[in-house]
Predict the structure.
Amino acid sequence: MGNTLEVTDDTFDSEIVNSPMPALVDFWATWCGPCKMIGPVVEELAGEYKGKVKIAKMDVDNNRKTPAKFGIRNIPTLIFFKGGEVVNTIVGAQSKTSLEEQLKKLL
């Protein structure tokens, strides 16, 4: 992972909730097929929105507390944050265009 930030239960609040920058977090797992499909798209968007939106990934198998806090039952789940608050949640693989539309709403 080059452009995306890997967050954990321990770093989530400092990196995402308390971030002055809007954020997108991709909740995923290594065994998840749809997660693997959108992984490259999320990585690409992280490069394109660098410095404007913080784009992070969280492995739900290694981090249980944060996904439970947000009620994540299916992956991939993408949660958009602004000012530390959830502004949108998308469940399932999405097109790059669809994700870009949501990112633009954050700015």
Remarks:
- The chain has one domain: 5-106.
